């Protein structure tokens, strides 16, 4: 099937919702099982849930957009010499928050984004434990869909005190601790995976500073969702994040907030 640039993602959204729901059901079927865990070279865990989710998503996307490259966290290494020729592509994290999945925190998700000219132009995040989808549209709007209830999302003005959200494994990061000294009145909460972007988009939090390591598939969908909800994600130079511009796929230090 081919799609033109007009309403491309609006046409794909129902299919992507069905796909991610199916993948999420598979992930949840393994949720409380004893899984064989492997540790990847970047010291992150890998399970059969990651592997199976990757296969299902890639299979579906390959059918929906057969001429579009797909970059997944679980893909074989694709050299930059090849990637640099991509004008547009899918980037996915089949199971973002594997450590949260293993610790059964319910704070993990499926991340799917579409990159064009180094920028995410579509994002979808699905949280299987909550059966909740977050996604952008061709009209640059953001929606949350849960149990067939669909609601638009927009960021909330700053709470008082400022509500800051970080990951479960970030609280001891020295750069983060030093950064937070800039603020006099704030409350820090912890939340796993890319759901932090969604939580700001729906007004629960105001700010998410990220100093620890993460990759482009960890951020692309969340960045697109938050930006379309009226927020922003910038690097240390206050520039938007750019994708597929270098050999490695590590994301820079960034600051996600409810401010445009």
Descriptive account of the structure:
The protein is α+β, with helices and mostly antiparallel strands and 260 residues long. It contains seven helices and 14 strands. It has helices spanning 8-29, 48-64, 80-83, 98-102, 174-180, 195-201, 216-228, and strands at 38-39, 45-46, 70-72, 88-96, 109-116, 119-127, 132-136, 142-146, 149-152, 162-166, 186-190, 207-210, 232-235, 254-257. The chain has a seven-stranded mixed beta sheet with strand order 3-4-5-6-7-8-9, with helices on both faces. A three-stranded antiparallel beta sheet has the order 12-14-13, with helices on one face. Strands 1-2 form a two-stranded antiparallel sheet. Strand 3 (70-72), helix 3 (80-83) and strand 4 form a beta-alpha-beta unit. It is globular. The mean pLDDT is 93.
Short structural summary:
Helices cover about 30% and strands about 25% of the residues. It has about 260 residues and is an alpha+beta fold. Strand 5 and strand 6 form a beta hairpin.
The succession of helices and strands, N to C, reads HEEHEHEHEEEEEEHEHEHEE
- Indicate the structural class: alpha+beta
What share of the residues does DSSP label as strand, in percent? 25-35%
How many individual helices?
7
